[in-house]
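Late entry, written up from scratch paper. The run itself happened at the end of the previous shift, but nothing got recorded in the book at the time, so transcribing now.
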Amino acid sequence: MRNEVIALIAGSILVTGCVPGVLVKDAVNKYDAAADQVRLGEQENKVLALLEPTQSHLLPDQKKRPEKLLLNGKRIDIYFFRSAWYPDGLTTDDEFTPYIFVNARLAAVGWSVLGGPPTHAQSPSYVDAPTFVLPSLMGQTGIRQQVQQEVEQQFIQRQILNHGAGGCTPNFSTGGCL
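Output as recorded:
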C-alpha cells in the first residue's frame, strides 16, 4: 500500500511537470500542419476555424489574447497562434505567430509588419529562431508605422485641446488659438 501511494505521488509530480510542455508541443505540431492551408485574403472566420482548434488544449497561460483596434476607419484584429516552444519556463511573444486581419480579411502573417516580437525566449540557443514573414497588404507602410502615426496625431490633438483649456478656441490646422 505504501509503495502504491509513493508511486502515485511520484507519477503525479512527473505528469504535472511534463504536461504543459507536452500540450504546447502538441499545439505547435497541429499548428504547423494547419498553417500551410491558410492564404492571404481569406475571411477571418475561415482562418480561425482552421487554426483555433490547434490551440484548443492549451492552458490559459500558454496562450496570447487577441488584440483589436480601429485605424483610419479599418477594423484590425490580431490573433496569436502558438507556433514555437522554448524550454525556458517563459511564455514569450516569439513563441507565437500573429495573424493580422483588416476588415475581416487576412492581410498579413508574422511579426515583421508589427515591428518584431516584443519579448523573446531567454535561452541563447534560440536567439536566431526563424520568424514567419509575409508582406503587408496595407500599402507602402506597415501596420506598426500607421499605428505610430495615428498615436502621434492623437497626441498632437490632445496637446492642442489642452492649450485651448487656457481660454482660447483651439485651431487644429495651426496648433494655436483662433
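The longest strand covers residues 74-82.
(Scratch paper discarded after transcription.)
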